[in-house]
Design goal:
Shape: elongated
Number of helices: 17
Radius of gyration: 29 Å
Strand order of the largest sheet: 22-19-18-17-23-26-27-28
Number of strands: 28
Distance between the termini: 31 Å
Strand content: 15-25%
Length: about 550
């Protein structure tokens, strides 16, 4: 949030975070852009020479900190939001002089083998970032934590601001974000969860502390930063319908925050948890928190040597009385969870940041495959007579459309399975005087357009599709086609579309510069959003039995 606000205020901002979700370069950013791989390699080589000459060789985290500092120096950053690694006092990020502000967020019992067994011990370690000459802002957490921080600030003559001095209140929230009020002023926050409102209170106090130290941060920059901030894998919505939420929660504290958010945002929905955990985490307590609202668990094995196997997690949950299934790989787990939740339910993926990155990477192609199957099933489940009746309505909509009326040469298809049947176009009065041409797949990647010369000009071709016989047809140049009607498995209101499988039409369409590119589908095949591949060409229009959807003009 601070990074987003400071960038909006016009500063060149460096940011370090750990761990990364998908790309190591996420750990070092300037103005919201990851460090380029080339720059990372060059600075790493320089740092390596220094590190290899040291008797006490630095750890990986120490090396990354050094690389980040050098990159921020090269990039002439005005200010850096420097996220501490595991602790505070002995963390390599603490090699800096006194920061402008030492910010201490919510503290829980984590990394106890390194930081201490009690909240007080952990707080004392975290408070090691407080140095004479800085300001300190802390989360309004456990009283014993605040007491430790207060004592360290007093010893170092550092002013302390606790975020709880001005209460924050959530005004409204939904899956698009939330609105909260503080000191009578309302703010929009794109991040989900009541804990993020409390984090925002810490941010607002930090902004005040920076202003007092001479940093110019306009109020509109604060508002815009909070409204626009993105944080991958933290209650991140990867899909709206079906609803799929990804969260990196990996300890009981995170699980409790996730549970509170799920309870508010997903009330009344069927919830399926997609989960994978590390064996050395307190996963029994995490799962205990989730059990009351879970209809089902789909279990995965995170990509880590420390991972608990999917089978072991499923067995544990089954013993606790939950419905749980183990899945062999992450794409299959995503599809299984989506099926278990259904289009009106919700999937919540959580348990490990190692899992979160893999899920985020695998999600779009897995959703695409799932959507294709779900929409084909929805299409094919329509009784034959219903499909026939709705196909006639679609034909009526097409032949009366401006695209069809203007066209001289129309390319369409003949249905062979449950897709929309366009045979009615051939019988329509509106088709008289027009050339109706049809696709022919001539290889696994190529298609041509043919004008058949009679009813004996047809055969079942590649992939079981009815196609004209080349010897009994005329080849039509794609430049001559005025309107293309494509078959469709899935589409959305923006006219994005998934084709029938191999992408033949999509590859052919680039050769049709003069054609209006449209599709025919049943309304049952409509999705909220279609995750597309590189070859997927958006349609100019999609015709269904109830509507003609047209792509907004850019």
């Amino acid at each position: 949030m601070l990074d987003a606000i400071l960038r909006r205020a016009g500063y060149r901002v460096g940011l370090t975070i750990s761990p990364y979700i998908q790309d190591f370069c996420e750990r070092i950013q300037v103005d919201g852009e990851n460090i380029p791989g080339q720059a990372l390699a060059a600075i790493t080589e320089r740092v390596r020479r220094e590190a290899d000459a040291m008797e006490d060789h630095p750890s990986q985290f120490e090396l990354v900190t050094a690389i980040a500092m050098e990159y921020f120096h090269q990039q002439h950053c005005d200010i850096v939001v420097l996220e501490v690694g595991m602790g505070g006092a002995l963390d390599s990020t603490n090699a800096i002089d006194a920061p402008e502000a030492a910010v201490i967020t919510n503290i829980g019992l984590e990394h106890t083998e390194y930081l201490g067994d009690t909240l007080e011990e952990i707080a004392a370690t975290k408070a090691g970032i407080i140095k004479p000459g800085c300001s300190c802002v802390c989360y309004d957490g456990a009283p014993q934590v605040t007491a430790v921080i207060r004592e360290v600030c007093a010893r170092n003559h550092v002013p302390l601001i606790c975020a709880g001095r001005f209460p924050v209140k959530t005004v409204r929230q939904d899956l698009n974000g939330q609105v909260f009020s503080r000191r009578g002023v309302e703010y929009q926050l794109s991040l989900l969860g009541p804990h993020q409102v409390r984090n925002a209170a810490v941010v607002l106090e930090t902004v005040e502390a920076l202003r007092e130290r001479g940093w110019h941060i306009p109020e509109d920059a604060v508002r815009a930063g909070l409204r626009e901030v993105k944080w991958p894998a933290r209650l991140e919505i990867l899909s709206g319908r079906p609803l799929f939420i990804l969260d990196g929660g990996h300890n009981p504290q995170c699980a409790e925050a996730l549970m509170n958010s799920v309870g508010e945002l997903l009330r009344g929905r069927r919830i399926v948890f997609l989960s994978g955990v590390l064996a050395d985490k307190n996963y029994p307590q995490m799962m205990e928190l989730m059990l009351p609202c879970a209809q089902e668990f789909v279990c995965l094995t995170p990509v880590s040597d420390r991972a608990l196997s999917a089978r072991a997690l499923a067995d544990y949950l089954t013993e606790r009385g939950a419905k749980a299934r183990a899945c062999a790989d992450i794409p299959a787990g995503i599809r299984l969870a989506l099926t278990a939740a259904g289009e009106d339910g919700a999937v919540v993926a959580f348990g490990s940041l190692y899992l979160a990155g893999a899920v985020r990477t695998a999600f779009a192609p897995a959703l695409r495959q799932w959507l294709r199957g779900a929409k084909i099933q929805a299409r094919d489940s329509l009784p034959a007579e219903v499909r026939a009746e709705r196909s006639e309505r679609i034909v009526e909509r097409i032949v009366h459309s401006r695209e069809f009326q203007k066209a001289r040469t129309v390319m369409l298809y003949r249905a062979t399975r449950g897709e929309v049947c366009l045979d009615g176009i051939e019988r329509s009065l509106e088709a008289r005087g027009k050339r109706l041409v049809y696709p022919r797949c001539v290889s696994k990647t190529e298609m041509i357009a043919l004008l058949p010369r009679g009813e004996d000009s047809w055969e079942v071709g590649y992939a079981g599709i009815q196609e004209p016989i080349p010897e009994k047809s005329e080849v039509i140049a794609p430049e001559e086609i005025d309107l293309v009607l494509c078959p469709c498995t899935v589409f959305d209101e923006g006219c994005s579309r998934m084709g029938m499988g191999a992408g033949f039409y999509d590859r052919f369409l680039e050769h049709c510069p003069n054609a209006a590119i449209t599709a025919a589908a049943f309304e049952a095949q409509k999705a909220d959003t279609v995750p597309t591949e590189a070859w997927d060409r958006p349609m100019d229009a999609v015709f269904t039995e109830t509507a003609a959807y047209r792509r907004p003009k850019s």
